[in-house]
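Format notes (please read before filing issues)

Several people have asked whether sequences and structure tokens are stored in separate files. They are not. Every record keeps both together, in the order shown below: the sequence lines, then the token lines. Line labels are part of the format and must not be stripped during preprocessing.
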Amino acid sequence: MGGGQQRPDRPRVSNAITPITVRQLLEARPDSQGSTQAIIDGKQVSHVTLVGYVIDANTENTSQTLTFDDSTAFTYARLVIDEDPTEPIDLANTYVRLQGSIRMDAGGKSSLIANRATPVTDYNEVTYHLLEALLTHLRNVQGPRGPLSGGAPGATGVGAGAAAGTSYSSHASYTTPGAQLSAGGGFASGLGASAGSAAAASAGGGLSDQVVLARIAELQVAHSGGVPKSEILKALAGEAPHEVARTLERLSDEGHIFTTFDESHFLCTSA
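Then the structure lines:
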């Protein structure tokens, strides 16, 4: 306004809790504008959450130093203890979810200051967090994705373009930043890649992956904790149950859907 000088553009600060991996934490860079905020995927990040394994925990007065590994890398995190430090919770040799903030030192090195550590009781949470970190990373670097070309309503996701290489199992271009969980790439192919498998299934007379994904996406509106397999079979009453079961298994293996509190309840990864 008034012809005054405009302030230089600065990355937007997010007050939301951002799911990240240890590798992303280690590769964070300081804000070039002189702020103490960390920059991840081109955005300022304030509060973060990570899920991983505590190799070792050393108590020092009102804090614990955790040796923390999430399969992408390991780091030393400082956990601030609010409880009586004479009776600290022993987190060594357990999976935990850490919440806290990233601190950048004068040399541009990042570290995690955690204010909360929650033991993981359901190991699906480890996989879910990696999926969530991947999805957040892809949204930040590529922008939100629209529906699949020619896909059914509700079948949206990070892999909307197979040509982009956004895959989640035998993937060529993207993995959870820094992670490679198996020799073959570790993750399942994205929804964009499933368009080809859906076409192949249709050509062979099989059940389309996209049809199953669309039904699950519709049903999970009323089943936020997971769509029961019985409801999926009911919604696909015209299909053979063994074909539905086989398609669910394939979609789960490829990372398009995941199980929740048991093996018979499903949610779409990117709905």
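For reference, the curators noted about this record: The chain has two domains: 13-121, 146-268. Residues 209 and 247 are 7 Å apart (CA to CA).
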